[in-house]
Amino acid sequence: MSPAQVARFIPILENAEEVYQDVFIKVFRNIKMYDEQKSSLKTWLSRIAYHESVSYLRKKHTSVIYLEDCGEEAEMLSDTEVAQTLGQPNPETVQLIKAALTHLPPEERAIITMFYYEEMSLKEIAYITESIPTTIASKLSRTRKKLCKIIKMLQS
After folding, report:
1. What's the alpha-carbon Rg for the chain, to the nearest Å?
2. What are phi and psi of 62, to 5 degrees?
3. Which region among 8-22, 46-60, 69-83 has the lowest average model confidence (pLDDT)?
4. pTM exceeds 0.70, yes or no
């Protein structure tokens, strides 16, 4: 993750810079552990940045909304309903999505950020989060539905 990527994940610039500095130190200390057979350097760096960012956000105890808090109807939303709620990209929709992202737990925010903003593959995200691609796909689907519900809550 670049400084801009960390900043998207941790919106307050000073905090993002602090996390990015921690990532740099960790990379510097562990560069010998990098194995080009397992991943690209970018993916390896993203893995470290992911873990540092999630760790930082957990320590901050940010206010989040869990899927259980959204009610059963959130899990029943179809992909078409999600797309209709999010609508066509426009400044208002973008602001709503950004606001909704701040209510997600760190892991969910990271998956959305990596998939949509960084355009990473499910395989890359799985490596970074130490998961498997099918699990990431499932989490991505649930998180999109949750975002849709959060957006509806923010609009009312």
Report:
1. 16
2. -70, 155
3. 69-83
4. no
Q: Using an 8 Å Cβ cutoff, are 130 and 62 in contact?
A: no
Gap between the Cα atoms of 155 and 24, Å rounded? 39
Instruction: Measure the CA–CA gap between 33 and 107, rounded to whole angstroms.
Output: 24
In the CATH scheme, what is the code of domain 67-155?
1.10.10.10
Q: How is residue 133 written in tokens?
A: 């691609």
Cβ-defined contacts of 19-25 (< 8 Å, 24+): 19/49, 19/52, 19/53, 19/56, 20/49, 22/52, 22/56, 23/48, 23/49, 23/52
What class does CATH assign to 3-60? mainly alpha
pLDDT of residue 62: 54
pLDDT at position 147, please?
Answer: 86
